Amino acid sequence: MGELSKRIACDAYEEVDKVAKDAWERLKKAHKKKDNFAVEEAIKDFSESMELVYEVWPSIVEELGIDMDTSATKTGYLAGYYEAKRLLPDADRKFWISRGDHVATRTMYKVSRIFPWKR
Known about the structure:
The chain is mainly alpha-helical. It has four helices and no strands. Helix 2 (36-64) crosses helix 4 (93-114) and helix 3 (71-87) runs antiparallel to helix 4 (93-114). The model has no long low-confidence stretch (mean pLDDT 91).
C-alpha cells in the first residue's frame, strides 16, 4: 500500500503544481504586455492554485519523507519570493510568500525524486 499512496500523492502534487506553474507563466506574460486585467486574473489563478498545493504538500512530505529544513528549501523559497517581489513590487506580501513557497516545494519535490530521503 505504501507505493500506491506515494504514487497517488505524487500524481496529485504534479497536477496542482502544473496549474500553479501555468498561472505563474501567464502572469509573467501579462505583466510583460502591461495587461493589468490579465495580471489580476493570473494573480487570482495563481493564489487559488497555491491553495491546492498547500492542501497536497503535507502528504508529499510524509510519503516521500522530505526534510524541509535544508539549504535547497531556503534558497528556493528566497528565489521565488524575490522573483515575485521584483516582478510585482506593489503586490501583497502574501503573494510574494506564495511564490516563494511554490519554488521551494517544486525544488524539494524534484530533489526528492533524484535523491530519495525515504526508501
